[in-house]
Amino acid sequence: MDQQATAAAGVAAASSAVNSGRRIAAASFIGTAIEFYDYYIYGTAAALVLNKLFFPTLSSVAGTLASLATFAIGFIARPVGAVVFGHFGDRIGRKATLVVSLLLMGLSTACVGLLPGYSSIGVAAPILLVLLRVLQGIGLGGEWGGAALLSTEYAPQGKRGLYASAPQMGSPVGFFVATGVFWALSEWLPKSAFDSWGWRIPFLLSFVLVIVGLRIRLRVAETPAFADFMAKESAAKVPTLEVIRRYPKQLLLGAGSIVVVYVMFYTASTYCLSYTTKNLGVPRNTVLGLTLIAVVVLGIATFTVARWSDLVGRRRLMLAGSAFALVWSLVLFPLLNTKSPLAIVVGLSGALLCMGIVWGPLGAFLPELFGTDVRYSGAGIAYNIGGVLGGGAAPLIVARLGETSGTTAVGLFMAAMAVISLLSILALPETRHRDLSEV
What we know:
mainly alpha
């Protein structure tokens, strides 16, 4: 125990010596920005081109569903990543785990940009695509929980919402960059060139982002909360089992609380892009440009509400966001169906505003539900189970409902998912006064 305490004290001293608030924010932000950039470019590509490149033998509708299914596979793999990376994050520390998750996530995404299509290698193309999606999902499964902990465990009492806004802002920034890259390519390249090779450029840019992110993360030391814990206690042997045994309510309800975030986002960003361009005939560049405006709304809402959560509490604001999403789910598609650019941007902005109100406080809320010894596993697993339900299954259900039952059914489904989050948050306590040194 003396050696353990000495090592932990050394880590804590190094942490205080080399880390600043700005560096911690950058390290938390960069990984989630890359995470959401990676997922957004895949979602956009799945809606626009992957069905033709990797599933050309299927009909247009079946091909779109197949490409969205590969999107869902990545989400299904994420809880596996949360368990694996959470295990090591709770046993050996946050920093090393976050470096590995960043590499796995970013490199598997970049390799999608190098993957030959069905016309070149046949059925091997969709198989390799699925394999890369699984690897990407595993890496992503360990990313958000560690990034959120990096911010919250460094934050002073009373400012965890503000500090935790750093990883949460990775979402709108990553989405903005991804959408902006696709918009620019669509603007500058002929459609034939974009469909042939232009869509690969956003994926290949992940190589650059990984190098930048890796440099930042390697310069960050271990969090004080974890170092202090290791100086006094022994790490849990199997953190995932400890989470299930001690925090079953927080695990399930925490997952339920995030469902509305994924449903609102991936419906607005992926399905609505496909619906407005293919079903309504709105030009692709117009929709991408309007989406950029909506992402700015998401960014403002995320940062503002995260800061407010330190003053009025996380739970109250997240409940308001879920209730707003319940209403907006029924408004979104009537606005889109007008085909008016103004109505479309209002509809998309409202959907992402709902997301931002819940998303902003969530970066502090989920980690605060769990003790230090299992916080990486608990927050990560809850987050990624919610991702399977809201981001993995929901896009497939939405696409199928839209094809067979119309957009009214899609709106009702989104509203039902908002109710799940609303009830889940109602059943959880307020967390902003929690002491993160507690086990």
